[in-house]
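--- STAGE predict ---
source: upstream dedup step, 1 unique chain passed
mode: sequence only
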Amino acid sequence: MRIELERRANASPLFSLLSPLIAFALTVFFGAIMFALLGKDPVEALYRFFIEPLFDIWSLHELMIKAAPLIMIAVGLTVCYRSNIWNIGAEGQFTVGAMVGSIVPVYFYDWSSPLLLPIMLVMGTVGGALYAGIPALLKSYFNTNEILTSLMLVYVAQLFLDWLVRGAWRNPEGFNFPQTREFVDAAMLPEMVSSGRAHYGFALAILAAFAVWFMMRFTLKGFEVNVIGQSQRAGRFAGFSSRKMIWFCFLLSGGLAGLAGISEISGALGYLQPQISPGYGFTAIIVAFLGRLNPLGTIISGLVLALTYIGGEGVQFTLGVSDKMTRVFQGMLLFFVLSCDTLILYKVRVIFSGKAASEGKAS
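--- STAGE serialize ---
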């Protein structure tokens, strides 16, 4: 007996549209079962996880802070995935962007100028793009698997950051803590409103989403991405270069990941430390697929995934559950999104060995 997937002649447009909602409903349902098995009231747990953070001003600001890097990274990944280029290393590009963008405020820590913050943002974007250029180079010239190379480079970036903040960049006045000097006010992204910590990194993420959506919807480059993603052969007939597309997608997604990295440092933290991300680069993969690989869809899905971070922290303190609960919910959400998409596009066929043998004899 074997199981095969047979592509449907006509996938249901309605279910394609409802797929993220179905996946989210299944995640909530199985999350309730999981809380019950842990001995917690499922209704109370789900309320604290998904609803309670929406009624607190502080939580709403934290929601925007956590959604900003998720949206910005996911916007770049949507372009990659729609062109069938699999950048899995956004976490590393996020880290390198944070490091490169921090060079000026770390070495020139007394300099305070209106030019400082724009320079940091540009340097962070360039740093992330250049780091993403490594798997692009290996893919385009040596046909190396970009999934493996981009993923392995994540750990290189994280270890290099750890080495920097414990060594050359460690604050000499920081009582031996592994972190850099605190950035001056001119190096910090300003707060959007006075009632909380939410900074303009969120506005940059929304702007990036609309800019990439416009590119994908109304420009030749967006058409090229879609054509090559659906068929490289058709792209070659149209005169599009697969090699140039690899470079374009990696540099774009890496640049946005790097911008997200330096925005996180200059907006939420104010200095570099060994851990600057709870896994934004990996969670952004879920955001991209939950948003249907649509840059505007990542805004909503980014807020949903940011809510899992806030809710996970809430149930950890109020109900005493593990801090890994956030990862469990995010993993279930990705699993159900991909499962729903698979069942919408394909029919599952169970073929028994006896039937297959008889079909072979008949032929």
